[in-house]
Amino acid sequence: MSSCLILQTLRTILIGSDTAISTSLNDQIYRLSDDGEKLWSIDGSVIFCSGDMDTAYKIMGAYLQLQHRKVKDISRIARILCKDIINKKIAIVVCSVLSNCSIVYDISSETNFEIIEKRMGINQSNDVAIWAAGIKTKEAGELAEKFLGQGNDALTTYKKVFNEISYEGVGGSLVLKQVTQEQVKDLMIETITEKPDMKILTEELYWKLQLQLIIAERVYGKLIAGVNLQIDASDETGMKTFTVDGNGVTISGTRLTITGGLPPSQLDPTFKDSLVNLGRAYNGVVIDAANGLVITKSDNAIRTVLNATDGFKFQKNVSGTWTDRLSYDAITGNLVIDGSINARELKINGVNVLVGASTIGGQFIDKIKVEQLDATTAKIGSAMIGSIYANQIVVGNGTIPDDLLSGSSRWNGRTTLINDSGIYTGTLTANQINVIQGISLGANATIDWNTMNKPTAAQVGALPSNTFIPTVPAYITATKITQTSIESPNITGGTIVGTSFKTASSGARLQMDTSGIKSYNSSDQYHGINISSGNFSYLDFFYQGEDRGGMYQAGGVLHIEPRNGADLVISSNYAYGNITIQAGSSALTKAKGNWDFTEASVTGNYARFA
Fold it and tell me: Are 531 and 538 contacting, i.e. CB atoms less than 8 angstroms apart?
């Protein structure tokens, strides 16, 4: 991070910066190099961009790629490139001179790259403003005011300021540019006088350090002549949100954040004790930066939140989570209520639609759209409602008595009951009845076959495959045969051929397929004996999915081996059960490896030598 000094008048802006690139190691600043590029001349303006130089170069590179460039573009690029980087420090200053004013734009990571304008207009032709950005801002601004006040010209002032503030973080060369409406001119490139004890980063230190470039300070400024300087801050859409001019301070649609200031020890005690502190509760009322104004009940059961982002919310604490009960979004204009509304009047578009106690006038209702309408004992006149759209209408206890209907398009005096059990009526006449599950005939019911086109089974098609049989014999229902499966408690047959046989579809089971026979436990792990097929077959023993060992043959040799840390034990639980290991008459019994007879009784062990 370098230092930048700016002298602003109505027609001319001088901007100078050093070229030092520095870093810090264990709270000590070291100089990396003196060839950093901090000033860019672009489209008649000069841009100072410094801080984390890798990020600063990326910002300027992306800005230069744009065909049409505006100040808000560099703000947008910086915000995008730094949004996921913690504690990234970048300082950007843009200097431009127009026909009727000069403008210094301050764009800093400290303000989330919001554009702050420092504008000098035509009524300030005799004014001079001093601005400093980067690091050593306060020192640079005060020294510039001092040297100019002593009668030094601008070039001398710049040299003296940078010689005075030079250290590990500021140095190298002083680059000075002049900005007017007509052109950008290089005024001076001069070596800065460095301090003799400056710490330079050596190759040995380079391999040890974690690079942490020096953080930026806020832009420091002072108007040393005149009183009419205007400062504007704009958001990403270009709308002015903060203005300082002869009329005072104006804040539009945002909040005022004050940093720094006097410590409590320097405040008047009577004033200090009357301050409202962030995060401190005053009879349940808290103001904080995250939520704005928060009013919480003493038992932490309910609270009210008011801020410029979310509008206002009345919330209830449900198992530790604040849940909205009533909220209003000023942007959308939507009011959301989770609960009942008890009102003496209900106005829609300024007209009260309540025509009596708990009654809404039907003339005010065009359509009712609900998943379920429960009218209970209510009466709804058909003339009062245009249309009712509902998946289900529940009236009373499942029937629709005549006295609950004020009118009907057709009414013939017949009584019909419709409920969950069916439709009960005298005669049902319909053009078509589609039966889903079947037709059930009562004890005295008959079918008039004379009215049917196909009265016999043969004419119907001798029970085709889609014929519904109301009662199936027990010996058939015990077994189910479909196109893909057979379900029966017992199956007896000669040869059963299949790709896979399982004792259960899942869980503890024995499964046989072309790869062998496998045993599973209830957790669907190999458990027990597994036999694999093939020329070199295996008989493996598993315990809860872990291979403990097995037997296999390969190359005419039968192997018995433990696996995964399991032991091999050959023993007899019977007191007189002998264990004999014997090779063929023409073969040998061989022992290999280490044999431990510590717990053994050995007899007949006589050495024989061939």
Answer: yes
Mean pLDDT of the chain: 76
Give the type of residue at 531. Answer: I
Confidence (pLDDT) at 142: 93
Interval 564-593: pLDDT, tens: 888 888 887 777 888 888 888 888 888 888
pTM for this predicted structure: 0.39
CA distance 92 to 107: 5
Cα-only R_g, the chain? 46
Rounded mean pLDDT, 188-208: 72
**CA atoms within 13 A of residue 586's CA, in its CB half-sphere:** 0
The structure tokens 């039966």 sit at 435
198: Cα separation from own chain's centroid: 47
Name, in order, each residue with C-beta under 8 angstroms of 187's C-beta and a sequence gap of 6 or more: 14, 155, 176, 177, 178
Distances (CA, A) of 512 to 341, 455, 492, 590: 67, 52, 19, 37
What gap in Å lies between CA 170 and CA 268, rounded to an integer? Answer: 39
Picking from 127, 114, 173, the residue whose alpha carbon sits closest to that of residue 7 is 127
Q: For residues 518 and 520, give the distance between their C-alpha atoms in angstroms, rounded to a whole number.
A: 7
Q: Reply yes or no on whether the pLDDT at 349 is more than 50.
A: yes
Helices (H), 379-534: 457-460, 474-477
pLDDT top residue among 39 and 354: 39
Chain centre to alpha carbon of residue 425: 59
Above pLDDT 70, what percent of the chain? 66
Helix (H) or strand (E) holding 205: helix 203-206
- Burial of residue 356, with CB atoms counted within 10 A of its CB: 0-12 exposed, 13-18 middle, 19 or more buried: exposed
Contact 78, 92 (CB under 8 A): yes
Is a pLDDT exceeding 80 seen at residue 379? Answer: no
Q: 9, 120 in Cβ contact below 8 A?
A: yes
Highest average pLDDT, of 67-76, 257-266, 377-386, 452-461, comes from 67-76
Q: 95 has which bridge partners?
A: 46, 104
Contact at 8 Å (CB) between 184 and 199? no
The CA-based dihedral angle spanning residues 431, 434, 438, 443, taken in that order and rounded to the nearest 10 degrees: -20
pLDDT exceeds 80 at position 380: no
Q: Are 55 and 226 in contact (CB under 8 A)?
A: no
Q: What is the DSSP letter of 151?
A: T
